[in-house]
Structures are given as structure tokens and as C-alpha cells.
Amino acid sequence: MYQLLNGVRILDLTRLLPGGYASQLLADLGAEVLKVEEPGQGDYLRWMKPYLPGTKESALYWSLNRNKKSLKLNLKSTEGREALLRLLVKYDIVLEGFRPGVMDSLGLGYKDLSKINPAVILCSISGYGQTGPYSRRSGHDINYMAVSGALGLTGQAGGAPVPPAVQVADIGGGALMAVTGILSAYIARLRTGRGQYIDVSMLDGVVSWMAMLYAQQAATDSTMNRGEGILNGGEVCYGVYETMDGLYMSLGALEPKFWQAFCQAVERPELMGKQFDRDPDVLAEVERVFKSRTQKDWASFFRDKDVCCEPILEPSKVREHPQIKARRLFISLSHPQGETVESVGNPLKFPEEREFPDQAPPWFGEQTREVLREVGFTEEEIERLEHVNALNKESI
């Protein structure tokens, strides 16, 4: 982790992926992130399988919660809400992922928070945003991808849409937009002293990722079809090809120089002028080329050639790729019981900054007493809060 955001303090009220990914990125950059978790189960991700070997701890939770602290607080109680407002003295950025309207119903909406601290920054991540007819509709990544049009373009021509293996809307549309919004509001506050409310919609984020596609559609007045576009299988120069051993290679020779280099490398000069030909015979010839060698042979063959052709790796092979190793994308976290846990590390690199050891994810409520004491709670008040926590464990 780095210390670029040292002094930035964030209350993270979210659960599961979008908020957890966003706050971990900020924690990796040095922000002090305090997970505010409801009594009983806290972040649902804590209890989801698969577990770390020999434990009842979720590997998924460990993947999203390093470098954070954890506080148990029952926001459905008067005492819990009052405690959260007192925390705004120190933690003046709040990240939440409830359905629209929940924070207001708890008396913790932006107007409520800004009365206590006018400089507060509140960022809300939701599926469809805080406004519009779908604002309170439930949904998941696949639904936001569907409504955005992105899912409809994924898959083979004539076949069914294929859901992506990673949560594009949750991470790209939600988490990364939230980080951008929070840092933008923080920079603005340094100049103006005022807080901000940030409304992040995962659907909005995915639609924005499709800006070039929608610009293309508007300019040409053409329809976009699954498996027929430049980037989703419609061009011979940009696609997936099976190898002799039943594995696959990715070819991304979009620019003429890369396509020419590919044709020269595989000794098919007759294909040079057919980069964007949609002739089935051209496609069949390229398919025959790739089926003439194994994936390992092709990877070795293209290693020193400027072609944009790489093997499609199974996840179990990614860790051993030399570029992945060189970039240190997998890290080891020290488990309190003495074991180490492998995790994907921070993708942001700051070569001029000193790196500090990453901290393991917090136990459920691990820093509750410590944090409350820091903001002025007496031992009697802490005992009362813990009593309230034990009484009401209903989910928000």
C-alpha cells in the first residue's frame, strides 16, 4: 500500500463487491477506511464460500477488504445513528450502497449529514441511480449489462448473449466511478471547503463505457449486432482462434501494420489486403493457420513479433505469466494464525512512492472500541452501544 491519501478518512457502509472494491482501492492508496457493519452478519461477503483452507473465513472477503478497519454499529437504532453522526468529526467521506431512499429513511441522508458537517462528502452507489422510474428496482450486474445494451452485443452471431465472467457493471460502472467521484469531490473541497453528494449508477457507468459504440451507431445510422462488430467477432483481424490442442489464441491485429506483420509471420501474403473482408473463405484460412500449431507453439512463435497475438490463459495459469509476475499483481497477506493468503494486489503503481506492507482484512468489528474511543466515546457509552448492537441484529 501507499500513503498518497494519508489523512483521508472514509466511512464505508457498503457490502459485497462495488463498494468493497472502491474502498479497497482508496485504502491501498493510504486512505483510512472504516467498514461500518451491522451487528449479526456485517458484510455478507464475510460468510460466502469458498473459505480459506482450514477456516470459516471467506476467500472473497479477503480479496476486497485489506488495509481497512471494522466497526459494528446498528444504524437502525437511535444510538447507532447518533454514533455515526459523531464519527463525522473524523471521518468526513461516506460511501454507501443501500437502495435509494434508505439513507434518508434512517435520518442519514446527505442533508442530515451536512447539517453536522457541511464539508461531508457522501457517495451513493446504486444499480439504476437515485432518480428515474427504476431507481428503487433491485438488480445485479447482469441486469445493468442487459439494459445498457452491452450484454446484447456479447456472444457469437446468431447465438444467445453470453454473460461476461467478471462484473463489468459492478466494478467499471460502480466501483471505479465511485472512486473517481470521491477523489474529484475531495479535490474540490480542498479549494472550496464544501462537501458534495455523488450519485453513482452502475447502469449509467456501463452506458458510458459504450460511448464509442453509440457514437458509431449514431454516425452511420446502423444497427449493432452480436458477433458482427469490429470488436465482438465480426472481423477476421480481431478475434479468437482455436489451436491444434483445443486451446485458443487472441488476435488483435486491428491496425494495418499489425495485420501485415501477422500475414508475413504466418507466410500468408495473399491475406494482406483482406484484413476487413467478411469473406468466409478468408476466415476459414486464418482458422486453418491457427489449428496448425499448439497454443504453446504459437505463444513462442509470436513472442518476438509485433503482431498483437497472445494465448488465452486459464485463470490457473495467469500467476505464472512473466508479465504478471514482473508487475507483482499477486500479493501475499499475513493471516493472524500464521498462514499467508494470496490475493490480487493494487493495480496502481507509483514508482516514486514508498510502499508499506499491506494489512490483512479486519475481523468483524475488530476496531469498534478503538475507533469509538478515538472520537471521544466514554467506556459507558461504548458499553451501551454494544448492548444495543446485541439487541437488534435485523438487516437494513
In a few lines, what is going on in this structure?
By secondary structure, the protein is an alpha/beta fold. It is about 35% helix and about 15% strand.
User: What is the overall silhouette?
Assistant: elongated
Main sheet overview: 6 strands, parallel
Mean pLDDT: 95
CATH class placement of the domain at 9-208 and 347-391 = Alpha Beta
Give me the number of helical elements.
16
CATH fold name of the domain at 9-208 and 347-391, please?
Rossmann fold
CATH architecture of the domain at 9-208 and 347-391: 3-Layer(aba) Sandwich
Protein name: Alpha-methylacyl-CoA racemase
Organism: Desulfosporosinus metallidurans
Pfam family, one: CoA_transf_3
GO molecular function: catalytic activity
